[in-house]
Amino acid sequence: MIADRAQFIRDNTRLQAPPHAPELVLHLADEITPIWRLTEEELGEIGLPPPFWAFAWAGGQALARYLLDHPDLVRGKRVLDFASGSGIVAIAARMAGAAQVLANDIDAFCGAALEANAQANGVDVAFTAANLLDAPPPAFDVICAGDICYEKPLAERVLAWLQSARDAGAAILVGDPGRTYFPRDRLVKLAEYQVPTTRELEDMEVKKTGVWVFP
Ligand SMILES: C[S@@+](CC[C@H](N)C(=O)[O-])C[C@H]1O[C@@H](n2cnc3c(N)ncnc32)[C@H](O)[C@@H]1O
Asked: Residues of the chain with pLDDT > 90: what percent?
């Protein structure tokens, strides 16, 4: 079992800029970090769930880029980054001038990654590991979600939950590289990018990735 998550993250990642949002630095895995080569089974043996937090996913990179280029969307606002992973979107929102940012992920390692990454970028972002989908969405001005449509049950549940947040008045921004369960007919595209990613995670080195909003 990993007793000190923060130390594990520092020992097994490299601080580097995600290619599509190079204003930030994040503790990420790459081919020269040992975590890259561990199988899911080996990760399980050391008590580590799949380390989503060790990668800047295409959806998160696109959303971070969009917030950095359109700070007016979040400036002075309360922002929730749902499924935060490394915290890339939460950190970009705070750098873009959000008044308050809460990052949320059910994997507690994401809390440790967020703390290390927020510190590396000189911003403060709060974190909760609660499963927010178990209750109606909390009140935020803006809810961001990067790359959440990779599994059917999760995608369906999150999209219904985001719709109810939209109905209650929040702005909803989603970053998605055309995952199978992404309902493109229900959302409006704000931007499209060619996002560099890695062949370890994706079928292509560059993923066409959109930033979408609930109408
Ligand atoms: C593909 S990663 C995306 C991470 C980040 N948003 C990005 O784009 O780099 C998906 C994340 O969703 C998180 N997740 C899955 N179910 C969740 C839930 N019910 N609530 C919050 N996060 C969840 C996973 O733990 C994982 O960190």
From this structure: 84
